[in-house]
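Hi R.,

Here's the chain you asked about this morning:
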Amino acid sequence: MSIDEKYRDQIQRSTQRLAHLTARQLVRKQREAERIRDTQRRMETQWKMALGTVLIDSGIAKLPPEEIFGVLLAYRATPLDPAKREIYRKRGTDWLTTQSRELKALNYE
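And the predicted structure, written out as tokens:
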């Protein structure tokens, strides 16, 4: 085997190792991206389930969906002053706290 052939063989092996390394890195990045997407999807699903639970627990879910949607759109479209928003936030916090205590008393949590 001549020196030229030896160097070509080394270059070819190095190129193959580099290609394998690059392919492994690409697969690793794809798997990480998939894990991130799955985590985001799970978090979004949990958020939607929590919102649904709030609607059901508050009794609003008994209303027609169109009416619920209309009320939410009207609320969002109406500029509220910070004091009014704080009143709503406090009312919601109080209600959620009360519900939490009731659930604990019934051993549902």
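The radius of gyration is 29 Å.

Let me know if you need anything else.
M.
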